[in-house]
Design a protein that fits this description.
- The chain has 284 residues and is an alpha/beta fold.
- A 6-stranded parallel beta sheet has the order 2-1-3-4-5-6, sandwiched between helices.
- The model has no long low-confidence stretch (mean pLDDT 97).
Length: 284
């Protein structure tokens, strides 16, 4: 929980990505504090301070269990600060969780910021689910699989060859990539179970009947790097935005930064990104 010095004007809940943890958002949270926003986040199961029994990258209870954790935190904060505007920013895997949140609890938020998201062809999702099912039988859901890891992340670095590290795709700033690579709480392989659960979330999110359940008046901001492989170098993001609009969403804003990679909050122009997000929140 990051508290502003003065009066709290609104709450921003952050939903972090796969193989990272909430303290990586410290600079952005303090920036929002300066404008009166209280910022709150939790480490997902199997991530950061929530790792138990040394088991990284695993959701006990699956995708909807992780979503329930976000709702528990939301309910607690909304009760503690009743009546204040409530926003959620979800990044990467957190963006997919947030997209599930939007149709599971359509009236819960005042606005949503979707960062580093994407859209996958359903044939690819189904193929991935089949691989996960086979690997789950072979190694178990709480273990990792090189095949599954390569399926999920193996192609992300290719557009940036020659590369310095296996994580060059996350950001163009060497210091950010090096810190991420050196951090034992970052970049670990997800379990077969988490890969399965993430794919189940992607499948849910792309169903028209679920998109139709969203609050059509909810303001939504998409933030993405034009060179983010998770977003298909912006193609997947644009497909997602189009699906939102076709489902009837009335207030959709797009911010695609042409040279940005996956983590726009850590990119070389992150101050511009911060200001764009803040300006958008203030307008709401």
């Amino acid at each position: 929980r990051w508290l502003p010095d003065g009066e709290v004007r609104g709450i921003v809940q952050i939903v972090h990505g796969i193989a990272e943890y909430v303290e990586r958002y410290d600079e952005f949270a303090r920036y929002l504090n300066g404008l009166g926003y209280l910022v709150v986040a939790e480490d997902h199961m199997g991530h950061g301070g929530s790792v138990t029994d040394g088991l990284y990258g695993y959701f006990r209870g699956g995708w909807m269990s992780a979503l329930a954790d976000e709702k528990t935190l939301h309910d607690k904060m909304a009760a503690d600060y009743s009546g204040l505007p409530y926003y959620i920013l979800g990044h990467s895997m957190g963006s997919f969780l947030l997209r599930t949140y939007l149709y599971t609890y359509p009236d819960a938020l005042d606005a949503a910021v979707i960062s580093g998201t994407g859209w996958e062809p359903m044939a690819k999702v189904k193929a991935g689910q089949l691989v996960c099912k086979l690997e789950e039988k072979r190694v178990g859901e709480t273990n990792t699989s090189k095949l599954v890891t390569n399926l999920m992340f193996g192609s992300y670095n290719k557009p940036f060859a020659p590369v310095r590290t296996k994580n060059d795709w996350i950001c163009s700033v060497d210091e950010v990539v090096d810190a991420y690579t050196a951090d034992p709480w970052c970049g670990f392989d997800a379990t077969v179970g988490l890969a399965r659960d993430l794919l189940s979330g992607v499948e849910r999110n792309e169903k028209p009947e679920n998109l139709a359940k969203m609050n059509k008046q909810l303001p939504v901001l998409f933030v993405s790097g034009g060179k983010d492989p998770v977003g298909g170098m912006s193609r997947g993001v644009l497909t997602c935005i189009d699906a939102f609009k076709r489902s009837g969403m009335k207030d959709v804003t797009i911010r695609i930064y042409p040279e940005g990679r996956h983590e726009m909050l850590n990119e070389s122009n992150h101050e511009v990104v911060y200001a764009d997000i803040l300006r958008w929140l203030e307008a709401r």
